[in-house]
TrEMBL record:
The keyword Isomerase applies. GO terms for molecular function: RNA binding; tRNA pseudouridine(38-40) synthase activity. Pfam families: PseudoU_synth_1 (PF01416). This is tRNA pseudouridine synthase A. The keyword Isomerase applies. Residues 17-111, 153-254 form the Pseudouridine synthase I TruA alpha/beta domain. Its EC number is 5.4.99.12. Keywords: Isomerase, tRNA processing.
Amino acid sequence: MSESGAQATRRLALRIQYLGGGFYGWQWQPGQRTVQQCLEAAIEKIQRQPVRCSAAGRTDTGVHASAQVVHFDTEKRLVPETWRRALNAVLPEDIAVQDAAWVPPDWHARFSALWREYRYCIYNSTVPDLFVRSTSWYYPYSTLDERAMASALDTLKGQHDFRAFRRAGSNRSHSLVRIDEVECRRAGQLITVRVRANSFLYGMMRLLVGALAEVATGRWSVQRFAELWQSGNREAIKYAAPPQGLCLVGVGYPVDPFRTNETVTSRCDTGQEPSQTILNESGF
């Protein structure tokens, strides 16, 4: 306790889920319902003080998260489990806190992260399934070739300039991204595209999936896909996949603040099998 009698602040990390359909993205926007606004309002109800949260990924309007990580500073002396239960009691039904943990004062949800992982879900069938429609792109027009999509994804691995998959409006000074892992697989009518990278450009995943759909229908060859993004031809990447199919499913740190050296299961709630990621001291 300081000389003034005030409690010293501590930093708390949260792992949260949210269904993005009811939000205008993560970040505060005047007059709009956002995840950050709702989470901060819930924290303020508990600690009776203003708060500002930082997130590992600033998801866009309509995008979901099954493993978003955020942090905030607080003087409130509650154990992490009590924070988790208290927040879930006052949060709206489309946000849930999965884990809470104290972290060092210099730890940052965004800047301490080694990687983020997004998964995009496409429901490729002539018959809609209402139970996955809010968390996937319903694509009834033709049968998509997931093997061609996988081949196109393989051209992305490594560090490259991905300006072709960058929406206008970003203030980032460069378009360099290191993509570490990619995957495309089909389970029945559901196709999932998974990408793990050190960071993502503004709108990158939705533009990428829109371009992959061109490959999957046969309109583009894998070679043309690679040539377009490698040349930085943003004009050729015309269509972004809709937001509801996208989900932030993991964030990696040098040491997982929630379950160090344990298996963490995350799932985009669209019916596919869960993915398991070991978060150890290397972050993988």
